Amino acid sequence: MEMKEEEKKLIRKTGIQRFFKKRWVYPAVYIGAAAIILASFLWFQSRGDEGNPKNIGYESNPEMNLADKDAMEVNMPVENFEWPVANADEVEIKTPFYNANASQEEQESALVSYENSFQPNTGIDIVAKNGETFDVTAAMSGTVSAVEEDALLGNTIVIEHANGVETRYQSVSDIQVKAGDKVKQGQVIAKAGRSLINEDAGIHVHFEIRKDGVAYNPVEYFKKPATSLKEVENSTGTGEKADEEANDSSQSDGSDEGQTSPDQTQGPTD
To answer: What span, in angstroms and rounded, lies between the C-alpha atoms of 198 and 258?
Structure first.
């Protein structure tokens, strides 16, 4: 019995020796040991990071902040142009936008008369149905680029948006923003007011949408994003890209011929 036990031990020993004589055994052992050590190191490191308050969140990593900011911008919903009033159901258009392709009658209704001269209306003139003042709001989020006080043309607010797009709010009073302010869509920026150039319009706001200096018909772009504005001149627009001085003189408010007919007046639409 003792001989058999010794023989078994000898056989086991011989088998183990043969196993370790194989070429792939030692590299495999080394690789396995290295993997265990590396895994242990990473585990302890992660445990240490959890206990370190400096590593909590993404604020400690500027690169992660940038990526997170980009992701937020990409996921932000695209805004559509909205009526520049707090309650669109309570207002109407007194003087429409001058459409170069419209009928003669429609074009005449969109001309602004001042001191025996006529100019095409480069926006729309909005009045309250009850004739009273009303809140003027930002039609789209952006940055206020200019606030100008002008009794003749009416006080003006210009808001810049992306890709050369801007909205203009003229003949306003009680201005609540200044140049450089960032405004949200629907934010109250002023009250409807008056202008000397269009006294007969009464209390109103002259609203414009421009891209690269070219005026577009706001009514055609309500409920649409700024990207819907064409790169080329709009066939329904004035087709003119004026300099700053010409812009100031052409941004006139409403005609003094009174209220347009129901067919010419375009009210808010959903």
So the answer is: 11
The distance between the two most distant Cα atoms of the chain, rounded to a whole number of Å, is: 133
Antiparallel, parallel or unpaired: β 124-128 and 165-173: unpaired
Each residue's pLDDT, cut to its tens digit, for the chain (270 residues) gives: 555 566 555 556 565 566 556 666 567 677 777 778 877 777 766 665 555 444 433 344 444 455 555 544 455 678 999 999 999 999 999 999 999 899 999 998 888 878 888 889 999 999 999 999 999 999 999 999 999 998 888 999 999 999 999 999 999 999 999 999 999 999 999 999 998 887 778 899 999 999 999 999 999 999 999 999 975 444 445 544 543 444 444 444 443 333 333 333 344 444
Please give the C-alpha separations between residue 73 and each of 69, 70, 78, 225, 228, in angstroms, as whole numbers: 6, 5, 10, 16, 19
Predicted TM-score (pTM) of the model is 0.62
Residues 126 and 175 in one domain: yes
User: Based on the number of CB atoms within 10 Å of its own CB, is 173 exposed (0-12), middle (13-18) or buried (19 or more)?
Assistant: middle
- Using CA atoms in the order 176, 166, 77, 124, what is the torsion angle rounded to 10 degrees? 80
Residue 142, domain CATH = 2.70.70.10
Which residue range(s) make up the domain with 103?
88-250
Q: Among 75, 98, 126, where does a domain finish?
A: 75
How many other C-beta atoms lie within 10 A of the C-beta of residue 11? 10
* Tokens encoding 101: 């392709």
The answer to whether residue 114 is domain-embedded is yes
DSSP-based three-state secondary structure for 103 = coil
Q: Tell me: do 242 and 165 sit in the same domain.
A: yes
